Each structure stands twice: as structure tokens, then as C-alpha cells.
């Protein structure tokens, strides 16, 4: 194929023919449509993306791909079409066939095997199967580093949060694909591993890391894969916003494509844009203009997934850009050379018109079936089994019953019975839904029913099986739990499907409160299985037996059954930093850490707080700005507190301070604050304070977990994240101390000002009236029983203490309740408090506003409630009215989940005041970071 400066074949003098090679397009339908035929014949389209909506079976795919190539050949295309698919395995497969295409674990499932050799084998097998159907380009590997594990939708499509591990597995995937003759594509440059989502479809997800930060983590796998021969890279459509970089869409930016990818990472392969049909891009820029911008930025192939009208608009836009001299012929020829070079590696007319087909797939089937089983068996991970419940044969007598509880989830790609399901669902339907048309997916309900049957086949005793929904724990569940001798709960991305988290915690609480017929307390065996993201309960020690399968295909769940019954020993390990504590290796000072003495140290602590506050950068709000030495002293009967200082015994000055609290109700030991004189950082003062704090917390009987951040007092709800550079510094520091910061939970404090002129949003009253709930405000301990029973559905640290503080302070604090209209049951609560209350002493934001202020704290909505947002707004609305009625001009919302949808609260007048990341870990598995 043509070298950089060699003369191109005269056939490429035809501009239309050349431009066709710069596009990749998709279409709807499982057969060749007039639209795609026109694009190939008239517009010389060079690449096609096939998705699950196009592919019914291996045989149909082979036929479809051949027809597309034959049309291109007969139309005089000098080179074959590049035909690509996403075939990531796990829950993302475009091509599925229960007979000829094997199922393999997701990328993270493969990483859990710990074997790059096995990854290579699986990648090669995957590529061999789709290559047999004539496909020559695989959209993989996924090279994203999952730097924010909890909230990212990529989930198990990545291999983890460690850049070096992602690199090693990514290169192994790539080499396996190339071994089978496919072109490879790394995605999603520069990274989809830590996107911030703003909400609206017209809002583009944003990367906030600087280029320097990206180069230390997210770009490492791309750099290594490029060095090993990566054929192409997909550049995402996300925005980028950091110092010196403000990009609306990465794939349209020459800073990202030409400068970062080509110049800095030295990539000279094919760059593919994100699909330009994305709503935000087409709405803000337009597809025609976007196409010109993508090519000028350095993209070689512009992707347009399905709309024929939009695809024509893109072609016309590119031609107009050339006519107007916005794009040079040399620039077009650069891309053409790269595309032709890639095609020469993965296809030819001989290969394109003679795919191996079904016969070859049949020959591959036996070895690939064995490989699939091996991969799944090696990926299943037992994260914890503290009570030694595995195998189940050790704890269940033959006649005892086992209960399986499974969620209702969206359909998942790939299942051995999918065709039967599809035939059943679609019979008599003139136009089935896309997922039904594809014949490549199966509902979770169906695959979980198969799991129940598999469990039943392995034992004499009965297996009870029922599903659960956002309606929470119902009487039927309670009856079955009481009846069964052991319980298995499945969750699938519980961090994003919060009803699953609440349901599981509720069932765990029920199992912990079981009694024998003689009245003796006996904890009922409970096993929680995450069948997608491993982060659901990875760091929750209250779930003592926790297993991860990384996807819920039938093959994965068959391996799970083998693990549950002891037929195989689970060999998988959680990938990345989640299962390891990073160590510090530099030399350390050993500072004398003393107990805080209020009489001796109070003034010095106030001086240290002032020094730290003044040391904050001008554009960074300090959480300590209104704190004092008294802010850290709870003197609460159910909280054991211990605070520590590093000080100069000669001058009495404090160099560092750390506060700790042990909450007896939840067994949580929390570091509530840790700060050091800015002039004395990097001297190991913080390290010495941290280790003393952990050692002290470990001595408490009943300690179950550690946490960074407390809601009581709420100076620091976690690691402050308001300033990106400071956030990175603190996350890195705590990570080096042994905390898994990838499993953080965002929390924030919000504020609404100008209450004097405030009024509820229009239509809110009507919305609340339809919620089926009644709201009231109560004061005093006489209301404690039902309220404290209600908040037990949420075991977050400090919750009970906040509510008890409010109930005991009836003159200046109360509880707002939402009660179900039909039976009066409490379904939601918040704490309401005023400036003169004791609660306000522990919320510095109340003083920080420097105006009359009231506060609302710690909302708890029952997991079973469907109208979550409406109830939340109703509780807060009543609180704001009370606060306004007392003459206050501002309202603080303390301790709000930071990953919630803030549209409703914004409409009510609230803005975020402080952002934090609450981090917790299992105390039983804590490893102290020793000084070197």
C-alpha cells in the first residue's frame, strides 16, 4: 500500500471515490437496504459498521457481509469494504449465534482471571469467529482506565482502574485480534473512564483531568498499544475542560487528535471519530460542519451510525469544505493512505469474497466451547466468605430450602436460549423491538430462571426463586426468607440501580435478626452475588459473603453454580487497585502523635485552622473557613471520639490535627478531619496522624469498617473535590495510605439563598399532591420510635446520631415526615434544624453564610418507594417553608448524595456549596502502610 510520499494509484484521482474511504456508516435492517446500497454504489462508501440490529445469526451475517462486499466489488471499488463490529463479550456482543458463536467473559471478567495468556486466547477465538463471517475490523480493545469506578457506565467493559494492568490486558486483547487477521481499534480516546455527566441529552459528558493527569493514567494503555501496533483509534465525542484545554467534542479538536494523539503519542494509524449523529453534536454544530471539523482535526474516518439523511448531509458537508478550501487535497490524501494501509493488513478481494463461513465455525466450536468454560471458571471471584458459607453443601442439609432472589433487569446480549425467547416474543408481532429483532439478547428474568433451575438440579432440597423490584421487600419476600435455610441475592449494577442496594441491605438486616424456634438468635446464611459491576458491595463488610461473576450470561451463571456447590475452586481476583493497598516507598519521619487536650490545644488548633484556611488557593473555598476547635467535639453518648495532634512541645504550636469517631450503631470508625500546616506538608506528619487514627479505631470492639468523612460533625463529608488539583492530590495521598479511592461515593452540601423572595416552583404542589403521601413536622423524643425504625433501612454512618440529636433538641430541631396516605407508614424523613440548635454547631456552612440560616439534613427515603424524587422535593419544600417562616434568608442542605439528579433541587433554588468523596473500606481486611 502507498507509503507516505509514494504516488497513489490514479484511480484515487476521482475525488468522490476518495471521499468515500473517509466515511463509516451503518443502517437499519438485517438485509441490504436501498439506502446502504446507494451509499456504496453512488457515494463509494468505504467502511460499514454492523450492530446487533443488523445481525441475526452467523449464517445470516456471513450472507449479509458477502452481499455488501459483492455490491462494492461490482461497483468498481478498488479495495474491499472495512466492516466493523463491537464484539467485546460479556454484555456487549453485536453478533450472537447460540450454535456457532461462543460466549466469553467481559473485559473485566477476563482481567479477573489474572492471565494475559488466557486473554490472548479468548481474543483470538473471538476474532476467529467473527472473521469466519467475513468481518475484518473489530472495535476493540477497550483501553479506558476506570478511574471513577463507582459511577461510570462503562463498568465491566474495561479491565479495571490500574493503568498498567489495563495496558497489559489491552495489548493482549489486541494481539489476539491481530493474530486472527482482524484490524484493531482502541477506544475511547482520550478516556471514558472518568466522565462527568450533566444530565441532558444535549449536554456532553466532560473529562476534567488535565493533559498532565491524563498522561499519568488514562493515556498509558493507548501509548503502549500504539507502540505494539494498534491499527486504529476511536476518539470520543466527550468534552474536555481543564487548565489550557477547553474542547467541546474531542473528536473535532486538533488539540486532541493531531497534537495529543498523533504528535505526542506518535500514532500514525487510522483515527475514527465518535458517531457524529450524537444529539449534542448535531444540535450544537450540525453534521455537515462537524464532518469538516473532524477531518480538519485529524480524523481519517467519520462515523455516522444509521440516518440516511444525516449521512448524505455529512458527505455534502465534506465536499463543500473542500470546495471552500477549508480542507486541502493533501489532507484528504493523508487519510486515504492510512485507510488503505489498514485495509491491506486485514482484507483483500480474495478474502472478502470468500469468507470461511459456517463450515469453519463448526470446526472451531469444540475447542472454543472448552475455552469459554475455562475462561468463566477462572473469572468467578469470591471477594469475601467470612462465615465460610461456601460450598453450600457445608451449611445446607439435603431437605432444607435455598432461596434465590433476583432483580428485574434490562435485556443482556448473548444467552444460549435467546433464539427460543426471541421466537416466542416476536411471534405474531409485525414489528418487534430492536432487542427482540436482533435475536441476540435474553431478558435477565429468563436467564435468572435458568439459574434457579440449575441450582435445583444440583441438590435434593428445594430451590425457591422470586424476583425483586424497586417496590422493595414485600411480605412474600419476608415469608420466603423466614422459610428458607439460606439466601442468595443477585445484584446487577446496584450502584446505579439503587433499589437493588436498598433491597439487599434490607434482606441482610432481616437475615441478621433471625431466631431459632427456641428463641435463640441465629444469623441466616446470606450470599450476595454481583452479576455485573464488582463494585456493588466490594467494600461493604456488612455483606460477609460476596461473589462476582462480571456478567449474567448463562455460561457465567453455570460457572457460578459450580462455585456455589464446590465443583470448582474460584480462582478469580478483583482487578486493579480494588484488591490491593498501594504502599509508600519513600523514607519517612516518625512524628510523636499525642492525644488532643482541649485545655492545652484549643487555641493552637484555632490558629492551625486559620493557617490552613489562609493557605488555600484564592479560587478554592476552604471547608474549615467557619470551623473552630469546638466544631470537632461531639460529646455524644453513642459516639466514641478520639482526636490527635502533632505539636511542637516547646512553642505549643500544632503542626497537624486528626479527629476520629467510632459510631457504635453501625460499627463505623471515621476520620472526620485530617489537616496539616501547609508549610510543613510532605514531612510525613499526615502519615503519622493517619496511622495513629487507624490503630486507635481498630481497637474498638465491633469495628466493621473505616470511612473518610463524617456527617456528624460535617466539616469534611469526605475528600474535598471542589478544586480538581487539590482533589487529585488528596485522592492520591489517601490511595497511597491504603484506601481504595476508586470506590468513593459523592456527597455534597447545598445552599439556597434569598428565601425572602423565594417561592416554590410552579406545578410542584400539584406534583406532590399526586405522590400519595402526607407531610408533617414533629418535635421531641415521643416521635422517636417510628422515625428511628424508618431510618434503619439506611445504615450510613452517623445517620441515627443525627436524628437522635434532632429529636432530643425539640426547641430548635425537628423531623419532617412523609407518610403513605393509605396506611400512615413513614416512607421518607429529613432533619430540620435552626441556627440556635446544637446540630448547627457541627455544620460550619451554617456560620459560613454569614446570614440568618436554617438547615435540612440527612434525607432517608424508603427503598420500596417509587416516587423518590417527588418525596425528596416534598420533604425539602416543607423544610424551606419552615425556615423562611422563622425569618431565615438561607437554607443549607447538608449531606446530600452527590450523584443524584439535582434538576429538581436546582429548580427549588439550591446550588452546590461543597463537594466531597466519601470513601469506606472493610476494617477486617485493612493493611497498615508501614514506614519505610
UniProtKB/TrEMBL annotation:
Transmembrane segments: none annotated. Residues 15-341 form the Glycoside hydrolase family 3 N-terminal domain. Residues 640-711 form the N-acetyltransferase domain. Coiled coil: none annotated. InterPro entries: Acyl_CoA_acyltransferase, GH, Glyco_hydro_3_C_sf, Glyco_hydro_3_N, Glyco_hydro_3_N_sf, GNAT_dom, NagZ_Beta-hexosaminidase. Keywords: Glycoprotein, Glycosidase, Hydrolase. GO terms for molecular function: acyltransferase activity, transferring groups other than amino-acyl groups; hydrolase activity, hydrolyzing O-glycosyl compounds. GO terms for biological process: carbohydrate metabolic process; peptidoglycan turnover. Belongs to the glycosyl hydrolase 3 family. This is Glycoside hydrolase. It comes from Pseudovirgaria hyperparasitica. The lineage of its organism: Eukaryota, Fungi, Dikarya, Ascomycota, Pezizomycotina.
Amino acid at each position: 500500500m502507498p507509503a507516505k510520499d509514494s504516488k497513489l494509484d490514479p484511480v484515487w484521482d476521482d475525488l468522490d471515490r476518495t471521499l468515500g474511504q473517509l466515511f463509516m456508516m451503518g443502517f437499519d435492517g438485517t438485509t441490504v437496504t436501498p439506502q446502504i446500497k446507494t451509499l456504496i454504489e453512488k457515494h463509494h462508501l468505504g467502511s460499514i459498521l454492523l450492530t446487533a440490529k443488523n445481525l441475526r445469526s452467523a449464517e445470516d451475517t456471513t450472507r449479509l457481509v458477502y452481499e455488501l462486499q459483492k455490491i462494492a466489488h461490482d461497483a468498481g471499488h478498488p479495495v474491499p469494504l472495512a466492516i466493523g463490529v463491537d464484539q467485546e463479550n460479556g454484555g456487549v456482543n453485536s453478533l450472537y449465534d447460540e450454535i456457532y458463536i461462543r460466549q466469553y467473559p467481559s473485559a473485566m471478567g477476563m482481567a479477573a482471571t489474572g492471565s494475559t495468556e488466557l486473554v490472548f486466547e479468548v481474543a483470538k477465538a473471538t476474532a476467529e469467529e467473527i472473521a469466519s463471517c467475513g468481518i475484518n475490523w473489530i472495535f476493540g480493545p477497550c483501553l479506558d482506565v476506570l478511574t471513577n469506578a463507582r459511577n461510570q457506565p462503562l463498568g465491566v467493559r474495561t479491565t479495571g482502574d490500574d493503568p498498567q494492568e489495563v495496558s497489559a490486558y489491552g495489548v493482549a486483547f489486541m494481539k489476539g485480534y491481530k493474530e486472527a487477521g482482524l484490524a484493531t481499534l482502541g477506544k475511547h480516546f482520550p478516556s471514558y473512564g472518568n466522565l462527568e455527566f450533566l444530565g441532558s441529552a444535549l449536554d456532553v459528558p466532560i473529562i476534567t483531568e488535565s493533559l498532565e493527569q491524563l498522561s499519568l493514567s488514562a493515556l498509558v494503555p493507548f501509548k503502549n498499544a500504539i507502540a505494539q501496533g494498534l491499527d486504529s483509534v476511536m476518539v470520543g465525542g466527550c468534552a474536555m475542560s481543564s487548565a489550557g484545554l477547553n474542547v467541546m467534542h474531542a473528536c473535532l479538536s486538533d488539540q486532541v487528535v493531531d497534537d495529543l494523539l498523533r504528535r505526542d503519542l506518535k500514532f500514525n494509524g487510522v483515527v475514527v471519530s465518535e458517531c457524529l449523529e450524537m444529539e449534542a453534536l448535531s444540535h450544537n454544530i450540525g453534521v455537515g460542519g462537524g464532518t469538516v471539523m473532524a477531518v480538519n482535526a485529524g480524523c481519517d474516518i467519520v462515523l455516522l451510525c444509521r440516518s440516511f439523511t444525516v449521512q448524505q448531509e455529512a458527505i455534502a458537508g465534506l465536499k463543500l469544505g473542500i470546495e471552500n478550501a477549508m480542507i486541502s487535497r493533501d489532507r484528504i490524501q493523508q487519510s486515504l493512505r492510512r485507510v488503505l494501509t489498514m485495509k491491506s493488513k486485514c482484507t483483500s478481494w480474495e478474502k472478502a469474497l470468500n469468507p470461511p463461513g459456517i463450515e469453519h465455525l463448526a470446526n472451531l466450536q469444540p475447542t472454543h466451547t472448552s475455552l469459554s468454560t475455562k475462561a468463566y471458571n477462572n473469572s468467578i471471584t469470591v471477594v469475601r466468605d467470612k462465615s465460610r458459607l461456601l460450598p453450600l453443601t457445608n451449611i445446607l442439609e439435603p431437605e432444607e430450602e435455598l432461596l434465590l432472589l433476583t432483580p428485574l433487569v434490562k435485556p443482556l446480549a448473548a444467552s444460549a436460549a435467546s433464539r427460543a425467547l426471541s421466537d416466542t416474543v416476536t411471534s405474531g408481532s409485525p414489528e418487534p423491538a430492536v432487542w427482540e429483532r436482533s435475536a441476540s439478547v435474553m431478558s435477565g428474568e429468563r436467564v435468572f430462571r435458568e439459574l434457579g433451575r440449575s441450582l435445583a438440579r444440583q441438590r435434593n432440597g428445594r430451590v425457591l426463586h422470586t424476583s425483586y423490584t424497586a417496590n422493595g421487600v414485600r411480605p412474600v419476600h419476608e415469608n420466603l426468607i423466614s422459610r428458607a435455610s439460606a439466601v442468595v441475592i443477585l445484584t446487577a449494577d446496584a450502584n446505579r440501580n439503587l433499589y437493588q442496594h436498598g433491597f439487599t441491605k434490607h434482606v441482610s438486616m432481616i437475615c441478621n435478626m433471625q431466631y431459632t424456634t427456641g428463641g435463640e438468635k441465629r444469623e441466616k446464611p446470606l450470599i450476595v452475588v454481583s452479576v455485573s459491576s464488582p463494585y456493588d458491595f466490594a467494600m461493604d463488610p456488612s455483606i460477609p459473603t460476596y461473589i462476582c461473576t462480571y456478567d449474567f450470561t448463562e455460561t457465567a451463571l453455570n460457572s457460578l453454580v459450580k462455585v456455589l456447590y464446590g465443583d470448582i475452586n474460584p480462582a478469580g481476583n478483583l482487578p486493579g487497585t480494588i484488591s490491593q493497598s498501594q504502599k509508600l516507598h519513600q523514607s519517612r519521619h516518625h512524628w510523636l502523635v499525642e492525644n488532643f487536650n482541649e485545655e492545652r490545644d484549643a487555641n493552637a488548633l484555632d490558629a492551625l485552622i486559620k493557617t490552613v484556611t489562609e493557605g488555600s488557593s484564592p479560587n478554592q473555598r476552604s471547608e474549615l473557613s467557619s470551623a473552630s476547635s469546638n466544631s470537632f467535639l461531639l460529646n455524644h453518648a453513642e459516639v466514641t471520639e478520639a482526636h490527635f495532634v502533632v505539636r511542637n512541645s516547646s512553642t505549643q504550636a500544632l503542626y497537624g490535627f486528626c479527629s476520629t469517631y467510632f459510631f457504635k450503631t453501625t460499627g463505623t470508625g471515621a476520620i472526620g478531619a485530617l489537616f496539616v500546616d501547609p508549610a510543613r506538608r510532605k514531612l510525613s506528619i499526615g502519615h503519622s496522624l493517619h496511622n495513629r487514627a487507624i490503630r486507635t479505631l481498630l481497637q474498638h470492639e465491633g469495628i466493621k469498617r473505616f470511612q473518610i468523612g463524617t456527617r456528624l460533625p460535617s466539616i469534611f463529608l469526605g475528600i474535598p473535590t471542589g478544586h480538581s488539583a487539590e482533589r487529585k492530590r488528596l485522592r492520591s495521598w489517601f490511595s497511597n495510605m491504603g484506601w481504595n479511592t476508586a470506590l468513593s461515593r459523592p456527597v455534597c452540601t447545598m445552599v439556597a439563598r434569598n428565601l425572602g423572595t423565594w417561592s416554590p416552583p410552579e406545578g410542584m404542589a400539584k406534583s406532590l399532591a399526586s405522590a400519595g403521601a402526607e407531610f408533617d413536622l414533629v418535635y421531641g423524643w415521643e416521635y422517636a420510635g417510628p422515625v428511628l425504625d424508618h431510618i434503619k433501612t439506611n445504615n450510613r454512618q452517623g445517620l441515627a446520631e443525627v436524628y437522635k440529636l434532632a429529636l432530643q433538641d425539640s426547641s430548635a430541631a425537628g423531623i419532617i415526615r412523609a407518610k403513605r396516605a393509605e396506611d400512615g407508614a413513614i416512607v421518607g424523613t429529613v432533619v430540620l434544624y435552626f441556627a440556635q440548635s446544637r446540630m448547627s454547631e457541627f455544620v460550619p456552612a451554617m456560620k459560613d453564610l454569614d446570614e440568618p440560616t436554617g438547615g435540612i439534613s440527612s434525607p432517608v427515603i424508603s427503598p420500596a418507594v417509587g416516587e423518590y424524587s417527588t418525596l425528596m422535593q416534598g420533604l425539602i419544600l416543607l423544610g424551606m417553608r419552615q425556615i423562611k417562616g422563622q425569618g431565615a434568608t438561607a437554607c443549607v442542605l447538608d449531606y446530600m448524595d452527590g450523584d443524584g439528579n439535582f434538576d429538581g433541587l436546582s429548580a427549588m433554588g439550591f446550588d452546590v456549596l461543597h463537594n466531597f468523596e466519601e470513601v469506606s473500606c472493610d476494617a477486617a481486611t485493612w493493611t497498615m502502610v508501614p514506614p519505610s
